[in-house]
Amino acid sequence: MIVLKTPEEIELMRESALIVSKTLGVLAGEVKPGITTLALDKIAEEHIRDLGAEPGFLGLYGFPNTLCMSPNAQVVHGIPNNKPLEEGDIISIDCGALKNGFYGDHAYTFEVGEVKESTKKLLQVTKESLYIGIKLMQAGNRVGDVGAAIQEYTESHGYGVVRELVGHGLGRKMHEDPEFPNYGKKGRGKVLANGMVIAIEPMINGGTRHIKQLKDGWTILTADGAPSAHFEHNVAIVDGKPELLSTFQYIYQALGITSDEEEGLRKVPLTL
Length: 272
Fold this sequence. Notes:
Layout lengths: L6 H22 L8 H14 L3 E2 L11 E5 L2 E3 L13 E10 L2 E10 L5 H19 L7 H13 L4 E2 L5 E3 L6 E5 L16 E4 L2 E3 L5 E3 L6 E3 L5 E3 L2 E6 L2 E4 L4 H7 L17
Antiparallel strand pairs: 1-4, 2-4, 3-12, 4-5, 6-10, 7-8, 7-9, 9-14, 10-13, 11-12, 14-15
Helix pairs in contact: 1-2, 1-5, 3-4
């Protein structure tokens, strides 16, 4: 069942989403060769608690940490460990926060030092596909319209779209209806409506779309060992249009990046 959110609930969700955004911004300044994912996990947990929230992933379905940390060929759900990041790595950091009874949940794939140009392109195309999808998240459109646009754009670059893992509704539960695939057919799927809040998250592989899972029961990898990229935003449908609740601007501030990609998708001004 799809749970539509009131304007007041959407504001509470914005707060939770921005706690995640701010946490990812703090981590952006720490992601560099030599740091471990476990050290980053500790920083994230402390920051989330300092902001008056609870880590959204810690203990959820039995997950042991605050962050899902997925480097290189890992797609999602990687468990933080003591292995240092290396020059040329990429790492998806997926973070959740729970405050006022509502979850925020979004992700960014970071470059560790200098990475290959082919990998940079994978990250760029995946992030571009995220915004292509978001702009179609309008009342009256269907879930398949969004998924088809993401699929068409990323596959046109020769990449594989993961099928087994999808975006999702978000609210008082981390995972709510509807499921929100990054593939599909136009005109198919649930109709988008005002009050929906979605975690949209393209997971795009540099090679085959096929995946496998480690024996830890969590970590998902590409079947061919190619790198994978993952970007995620929280989006509410308000007055028939998509409105970002999360932001990458804290990340960009930390990294010295200027971007207008969120222009027109945000009603509430950010205080950086």
